TrEMBL record:
This protein's record includes keyword Zinc-finger: no
The name this protein goes by in its record: L-rhamnose isomerase / sugar isomerase
Lineage, top ranks: Bacteria, Pseudomonadati, Pseudomonadota, Alphaproteobacteria, Rhodobacterales
GO molecular-function terms, A-Z: isomerase activity; metal ion binding
Alphabetical UniProt keywords: Isomerase, Manganese, Metal-binding
């Protein structure tokens, strides 16, 4: 993996400047009544899960251009995820996708232990057909018109729970591609009722300490309608299923310009916010690197999360969900994990008393300025110091490149043929 000597040598390049910058920021935050060390402790304790599929190069509907040294299977993926956490100290867990990551639970646990990771939510897959399966998902899975196909999809989700239970996971995330491409193709109501009935059968198989997350998505692969298209439908599902069911918000799964931070607030109010898939987008479900397009929106989401801290039962799971087409996936995931931490820290800096006072007195300008003051603060020294104190890298990208990890794994992992398509 990454040798500590390489991390230390890289840190030597940045350490002096970091101490100067941390002290200077500390003095400025002190004037705002904020303890920099307290903020650093909070971010040091913050972790975000990485998806196993995120360490592979993604693709579009048109093509996929594989990178060097791509992981050959789940054990290579866990190595790569271990590197991300080793350098950033920000990603202590991995989210598995079944059947892509199916393996012996004892082997999974032993590998996770070796690379210092644990397992986050399990993800089922009923949006593509597997070689051995009896019924096709071409026309849907949990909402399919055919009872045997629905039963097969339910059974697959129960298998995911069974595997997850053996490796310490505590949640199942369900996203279905079910929907329609033509007006009139499906009966909206009957299709939704079939989905609810099948989802209830999955829910019935949850262990008592598990949560079920359902993820809404407006379109794709179905382009006219999807069964779980928006947060309203998602909330109906979670409320229909019961106390262990929650809504998962993927930032890319909304119409352009939708106020996602307000959706977050509504789900907090309903006590149904289960978690996030972080990514960024310009047009649709672009799966771009978190914070690369609209870091202010990410901050506004975290502003709602920080405001909700301490609310009973409020414990959303955080995960990245991106597709990397033109970057080294490890570099993108490290960068994105740090962007999420940055948004969290900026949201911690919001002067809540000032904000609430301005809201109550209808002083719109002061209210927005309270947010902007926090957002404009360059919190990088806090993030970097938290990393340094954990023995991680002040500059993870620089340390990763210095370690030559990609070239090392490319020497042992065979190149994948170019030209294959598909969104990963
Ligand atoms: Mn997602």
């Amino acid at each position: 993996m990454i040798n500590q000597d390489i991390i230390d040598a890289s840190n030597d390049d940045f350490k002096t400047d970091l101490h100067t910058d941390y002290e200077s920021l500390g003095a400025r935050l002190d004037r705002r009544g904020i303890s920099i060390d307290a903020i650093k402790q909070k971010v040091a304790g913050y972790g975000i899960a990485v998806p196993s599929w995120g360490v592979g190069t993604g693709g579009t509907r048109f093509a996929r251009f594989p990178g060097a040294g791509e992981p050959r299977g789940i054990f290579d993926k866990l190595d790569d995820c271990g590197v991300i956490h080793r350098l950033t100290g920000a990603t202590p867990s991995v989210s598995l996708h079944v059947p892509w990551d199916k393996a012996d639970p004892a082997d999974l646990l032993s590998k996770a232990d070796e690379v210092g990771l644990s397992f986050d939510a399990m993800n089922s897959n009923t949006f593509q057909d597997q070689a051995e399966q009896a019924h096709s998902y071409k026309f849907g899975s949990l909402s399919h018109t055919d009872a045997a196909t629905r039963a097969q999809a339910v059974e697959h989700n129960l298998e995911c729970i069974a595997l997850g239970d053996k490796i310490g996971s505590k949640a199942l995330t369900i996203w279905v591609g079910d929907g329609s491409n033509f007006p009139g193709q499906v009966n909206f109501t009957r299709q939704f009722e079939r989905y609810l009935d099948a989802a209830a059968q999955v829910y019935a198989g949850l262990p008592a300490d598990w949560r079920l997350f359902t993820e809404h998505k407006m379109y794709e692969p179905a382009f006219y309608s999807t069964v779980v298209q928006d947060w309203g439908t998602n909330l109906m599902i979670a409320q229909h299923l019961g106390d262990q069911a929650f809504c998962l918000v993927d930032l890319g799964h909304h119409a352009p310009n939708v106020n996602i931070e307000m959706i977050v607030a509504r789900l907090v109010h309903a006590q149904k916010l289960g978690g996030f898939h972080f990514n960024d987008s310009k047009y649709g479900d672009d799966d771009l690197d978190t914070g690369s397009i609209d870091p202010y929106r990410l901050f506004l989401v975290f502003n709602e999360l920080v405001a909700a801290e301490g609310v009973a039962g409020f414990d959303p799971m955080h995960m990245l969900d991106q597709s990397h087409n033109v970057t080294d996936p490890i570099e993108s995931m490290m960068s994105s994990a740090m962007e999420v931490q940055r948004a969290y820290v900026q949201a911690l800096l919001v002067n809540r008393a000032e904000l609430e006072g301005a809201q109550d007195s209808n002083d719109a300008l002061t209210a927005q300025a309270a947010l902007k003051t926090a957002f404009r603060t360059d919190v990088e020294p806090i993030l970097a110091m938290a990393r340094l104190e954990k023995g991680c890298a002040i500059n993870p990208i620089a340390a990763y490149r210095a370690a030559g990890y990609r070239a090392k794994v490319a020497a042992v992992r065979p190149a994948i043929a170019a030209g294959s398509s598909g969104i990963v």
